[in-house]
Amino acid sequence: MVQQLRPPPSPAAALAEAEQLLATRPHLALTRAEAMLRQVPAHPPALFLAARALRRMGRQREALDRLDALAKANPRVPAVLYELGQVAADLGDQRRATAALQALVRLQPAIASGWFLLARQLRKAGQEEDAWRADLSGIHASSRDGELLKAAAAMNDGETDAAEALLNARLERQADDAPALRLLGEIAWRRGDMTTALDRAARAVDLAPGFDLARDFLIRLLLQTNRLSEALDHAETLVRSPVPSPGHRLILASVLVRLGHQERAAAIYRELLAERPDEPQVWQNLGHVLKTLGHQDEAVEAYRAAVSRQPTMGEAWWSLANLKTVRLGAEDVAAMEAALASLDDAVDERKDDVFHLHFSLGKAFEDTGDHAAAFAHYDKGNALRRTMIRHDADAFSAQVDATAATFTAAFLAGMGEGGCPAPDPIFVVGLPRSGSTLVEQILSSHSQVEGTMELPEMMMIAARLQSRVDEGEFPDFAAMVASLSPADRARLGDEYIERTRIHRQTDRPLFIDKMPNNWQHVGLIRLILPNANVIDARRHPLSCCFSGWKQHFARGQTFTYDLADIGRYYRDYVGLMAAWDAHFPGAVHRVIYERMVADTENEVRRLLDHLGLPFEPACLEFYRNERAVRTASSEQVRKPIFRDGLEAWKPYEPWLAPLKAALGPVLDSYPDAPSAR
C-alpha cells in the first residue's frame, strides 16, 4: 500500500499559520518566515512577518534593517510604517520613528494608535504643541472606532457590564488605549467607584496628555473628591490646549472658585462674556463670584443679565432673591410667573428651574408682606425639591444616637492620648441659618484668625471611616473607632491639616472651618485634633428651622426640604450637643444668636476668651471685613448686627404645626437642651 503524502501548504496558508504563532511563539514564526523567504526571496509578507517576530524577540536592530528595506520598496503600506515607527521608537531613534509615523498618519489618518505613538515621539523631541495636536487627532480618529462606539452606546444604555467587557478585551490587545481607559473611568464613576474612576482617567491622561476630554473628566473627578490642588494643576494645563475652548476656561474658573480665588475667576468670566455676551450661565457664574466678593450691585446686574437672556433660568432668579437685601418687584413677579407657566409641560425635565422659581416667588411675596402666597410658593418649591433628594430621618436619628453612645467620656479616656496636636482649626458648627456666618465674620476680623469656607474634609474623613463599617470590616462604628491607634489618629489629624492647607491664604496661626454639619463629628474631632476648638452657633429653633426651610441650598443640606424633617434634625442636633457637653464640659463654646444680637461686645469677648485670644475692636466692626463670603448670609454680615430677622417666622406660624411637633420639648427649653433627649 502506497502512503500518500500531504501536499505542502500553499504560501498563503503557511503565512497564516506563522501569523498565529507570532504573539506567543515568535521564534517559531521567524523560522517559518525564513523558510518561506528561502523559497521566495524578498517576499514582502514573509519579510514583514520576520521583522515583527524579530521585534517581539527583542532583536530590534535586525527588525529595523528589514523594515527599512520594506518601507523603501513599499512606501505606502500603513502596516509597515506603523511597525517601523514602533521599532525605531523602541531603539530611541526619534527622527526615524517620527518620520515613519508622520508618513503613516498622512496615508491613514483614521489609525488612532498611529497618532498616539506619533504624539509620544514628538513630546520626547520637545515638540509639545505638535504632540498635543497629534493626541487630539488620535481622539478624533477614535471617535469613529466601531468598537469604542459600541462600548459607549452600551454604557449610555445602562449596560455597564457589557461595555466594561468590551473595553477590557480591547485593553488586553492594546494596554495603552487612552480612549478605552477614559470610558472605563466613566463606567466606574457611574457605579460610584471613585477610586477606580480616578485611576482610569489619570492613566488615560498620562498616556495621551493632549486628550482634553479625559483631562476635563479627571478635573471633575478631582473636584468631586476635593483634591483641589491637583484639579488646579490640570485645569491650568487644559487652558493651554492648542485647540482652545470656552469650556476649558470655565472649568478653570470653577476650580478657582472652590479654592477661594474669586477675583481671578471673575476675570475669566468677564473675558468669556466679552467674547460671547449672550451666555446666561456665564452671567450667573459671574454673579455668584461678585456676590461672594461683596460687590452686590454688580452681582445684581449679572443675575439680571442672565434672566434677561433666559427668563426661565430659575437658579439666576433665586440668586437674585437670595441676595437678602434685594427686593423683587411686580415686574419680576410677573416675569417669574410667566416663566413658571411656560414650564408647565416640562416640569419633569426642568425641575431645577421650577423649584428655584417657586423659592424666588416665595421671597418676592414675603417682601411684599403677602405671607400666605409666600408660604404657598415655598411649600411647592420644597415639596418638589424633596422628591429629588434622599433623606431618611429615622436612619439619621439612629446614627446620631449611635454616635452619642460611642463617644462617651469613659471611651475617650480609655483611648488615651493621640491625634495631631495642631491647635489651628476652629470648627464653627450648628445648623445652616443659625448665625454661624456672623460668628465666622467676627472671628476672621481678628488678626490671629483666618476665615476660609465650609470645608468638607472632616466629613470626608468620617465618611471614609464609616465605609469600613459599611463594607463589613467592623461590626459597627464604635468598634471601628476603638480600633484606631494613636498613630492612626495622628495620621488622620495630619491629613485634615494638610488637606485644608490649600484654603489658607495668610500666615495667621488659626483658621475657621465653618462646615455646619460637623456638629455630628465633635467626638471624632477630639480624637484626631484634640487641641482644636469647637464653637456651636445656635439660634431659636423656629427662626433657624423656618429660615432653613425657605432657603434653597446648593448642596448637602438634604434635611431642609420638609418642616418635620428639619425639626427632627434640629432636635437630634440639640441632643447630641447636650451629650458632648456632658462628656466634655466646657470643650464646646456655645454662641446663642439672640444674645449676640442683644449684647454683641460681651458675647464677642466671651468668645475670644474661650479661644485664648485678646480682644480686638475690629471684631465689633466685622462688617468692614472685605473677605469673600460664600454662604446665604453673605450680604447680611456686611452690615452691622440688626434685630429685624429675630422673629421672621411669626407671620407664618399658622402653617408651622409640623415643625413645632417635630421639635417637641426642644422648642420650649431653648436656649437650653431638654433634660432628656
From TrEMBL:
- Residue ranges of TPR repeats: 280-313
Locate the transmembrane regions by residue number.
none
> Which Gene Ontology molecular-function terms are recorded?
protein-tyrosine sulfotransferase activity
Q: Which UniProt keywords apply?
A: TPR repeat, Transferase
Question: Taxonomically, which superkingdom?
Answer: Bacteria
Q: Which Pfam families match?
A: Sulfotransfer_3, TPR_16, TPR_8
Write down the InterPro entries for this protein, in alphabetical order.
P-loop_NTPase, TPR-like_helical_dom_sf, TPR_rpt, TPST-like
- Which SMART domains does the annotation name? TPR
Designated name of the protein: Sulfotransferase
Q: Which organism is it from?
A: Novosphingobium aromaticivorans (strain ATCC 700278 / DSM 12444 / CCUG 56034 / CIP 105152 / NBRC 16084 / F199)
